[in-house]
Amino acid sequence: MDSLVKDQTLSQEKITVVGTGLMGHSIALSIAWAGDFVKLYGINQDEITKAKNHILEKLENLVGNELITNEEKDAVWACFSYEDELEAALEDATMVIEAAPENLELKQGLYEQMDRICNKEVILASNTSSLQPTKIASFARNPERILVAHFWNPAHLLPLVEVVLGEKTEERFVERTMKVLKKLNKEPIRVEKEILGFVGNRLQYALFREAQYIYEEGVCTVEEIDKAVETSIGRRLGATGPFMTADMGGLDVFSSISDYIFPDLSNEDSSLATMKEKVSDGKYGQKNGEGFYKWDEAFSRYKNQERENELIRWIKKEQ
Fold first, then answer.
1. How far apart (Å, rounded) are the C-alpha atoms in residues 164 and 249?
2. Cis (ω within 30 of 0) for the bond into 154?
3. Is the dihedral of CA 36, 61, 153, 182 positive or negative?
């Protein structure tokens, strides 16, 4: 990996990632993999240790899939530093990417604090998947440098980052953010309006709502519905998005089908019955062992590895 350097010449930014969880450590890995130093902030040493273990696990997988060598793995690992004191983590940062839990009040307090600590030229970017940057910046004195940079999970393997502008976000901070993301080998898109859920999640949850509806109607099992997506549109959408697909299929055909199928699609305004029942019963999926599927340790390890391998296959194809 000839791009690995030690003098911050890649992004021209000194980046701190706030949060060591599922997204935080993976975002930090994206930065280090591109050759930049990155400082990772965790609330305590236990959380930092967990993050280090997850990062090492992901690096080993990259080596195993021949995306990097052992020497490159060591170079990536050397790009990390860690802090459990927020002020120390933000010292000298020119860009902060926050990956704290999805709680508006928590984020508002954090941004008020970071806004006081950091000078006015530091970009403060939230990895929130749905919260509006204007609301996140509510108590900050310098809301013009606050925006959303929503990475997708797993952040080190998926290229999309949604850059969402708040009402007071200034263009110069947007341009710097887009420049950094491109140099980190990401594919950023500008989201000009603070639409709830942004772009990717609105599309994802439209599909998920219809999947729930089809299941509730007794049309197919959960497994068959998943298979239908995985073996058709799931493969095709990796090459052509919805508008490109429509163009290739013929807009006259897609318009006609839309006219008769749209009225029959689900318009539920909340989770459907089975989903609500599972959540009520504390069955949250992989995180605690059961959801729509049973998640023992072996199955969990297998499915996570399978997903990573598929995403790595796409990276190899693009290279």
1. 31
2. yes
3. positive
